[in-house]
UniProtKB/TrEMBL annotation:
Pfam families for the chain: VWA_3 (PF13768)
Membrane-traversing stretches: none
Name of the protein: VWFA domain-containing protein
PROSITE patterns from the UniProt entry: VWFA (PS50234)
Organism of provenance: Aegilops tauschii subsp. strangulata (Goatgrass)
Residues of the signal peptide: none
């Protein structure tokens, strides 16, 4: 789950902000610094799912509860992201100070002494310098991640499991947990809800767009990741185009679009195939390119089944065919085709593509 840590080098600064404990003075410094998890006052998660991508916005408020008000320390934010997570931006407010992320070129040396964010696989880290004890740290982090797709079901999985020690005292703070979810399946067909980790109330449903809300006062923060899964009608081959406006305050303000196709149910009878492989064997294909093509054709041939038909045509300045007609798939024909490729896949000469294309058309 998203976490905030006090980066403590001087143990003498550790104390409650409002009521000093009058502990004996501690001498020395910590190297490396100790990381003390901060108590969290508020959490708000917004997830916008469109096709196979989820745009996630997380807003949280932490309290620097372990440093006396007369002292300061750095605070480190650590935000885990879901599958193929990509950070879009972060803003942090501490009192009257505010910070935000900015994408810079690797060669740009002008950012040497400013706050930096570190991105590791599925993890984003950000350090806020010199935060006064007792202060509130409000952070908003945005990222995108992929939905998992399996057999017609889409699933979004977001790290949202908080350890018990980030819960502040219940008599001091009322803990309010909020999750907003919107789903834009991109399909005009029925969307079926399959499961969710947190109780969600459906707020609206309009065509292929659905919205849900979870909002509650809780005794403890969530102890499980947020997951939500749904399926779309997949009996027929379907597809479409989806336009996604740019996210507010994103450094890349361009709109995006996606063209998508779902194959539908896999239980239908597959039609017979007639395949002609047209391979360029000119001098430009010499070496690994032609070897890769030969391996790809061989693999494709192995996936054909009885009842299918195939042929192979190579061309440079001349044209060569494995057969004068479409051959029926069987073990003997596939073995002969592999032997023929080993003998005839030789890269040399120039390129004349019109002749083989006309030859392909004459086979059908």
């Amino acid at each position: 789950a998203p976490m905030a840590y006090a980066v403590v080098s001087d143990p003498g600064a550790v104390d409650t902000p409002d009521v000093p404990s009058y502990q004996p003075y501690v001498y020395g410094r910590l190297d490396p610094p100790a990381l003390i998890p901060l108590q969290m006052k508020e959490i708000d998660l917004a997830v916008d799912c469109a096709l196979d991508t989820a745009a996630v916005t997380l807003r949280a408020r932490w309290w620097l509860h372990c440093i006396t008000r007369s002292r300061e320390c750095d605070v480190r934010l650590v935000v885990p992201m879901g599958e193929q997570g990509s950070i879009l931006g972060a803003e942090v407010t501490v009192g009257r100070m505010s910070y935000n992320t900015q994408v810079t070129e690797v060669e740009d040396q002008t950012m040497e002494n400013t706050m930096k964010g570190i991105l590791k696989p599925h993890m984003f880290c950000l350090t806020i310098p010199q935060v006064e004890g007792g202060a509130d740290i409000v952070a908003t982090v945005r990222w995108s991640q992929k939905l998992h797709y399996d057999n017609g079901r889409f699933t979004v999985d977001i790290p949202f499991r908080f350890p018990y020690y980030v819960n502040p005292l219940p008599k001091v703070f009322m803990k309010r947990e909020k999750i907003q979810l919107t789903v834009n399946s991109g399909f005009s067909k029925e969307v079926l809800l399959q499961g969710t980790s947190h109780s969600l109330k459906e707020k609206a449903r309009q065509g292929d767009k659905l919205s849900f809300l979870h909002e509650a006062v809780v005794e403890n923060w969530s102890n499980k990741d947020f997951t939500f899964s749904y399926s779309v009608y997949s009996g027929d081959l379907s597809g479409g185009i989806h336009v996604q406006p740019s996210i507010s305050q994103d450094y890349d303000d361009r709109d995006t679009f996606s063209i998508f196709i779902l194959p539908g149910s896999g239980n239908r009878k597959v039609f017979k195939k007639a395949v002609v492989f047209v391979v360029d064997t000119s001098g430009s294909m010499k070496g690994k390119p032609l070897e890769n093509v030969k391996n790809a054709v061989s693999t494709a041939l192995s996936e054909l089944v009885q009842g299918d038909y195939f042929n192979i045509i190579t061309f440079n300045e001349e044209l060569h065919s494995f057969s004068s007609c479409l051959e029926k798939v069987n073990e003997k024909a596939i073995a002969s085709a592999n032997d023929w490729m080993n003998a005839n896949f030789v890269a040399e000469g120039g390129t004349d593509i019109m002749h083989p294309l006309n030859e392909v058309l004459s086979l059908f």
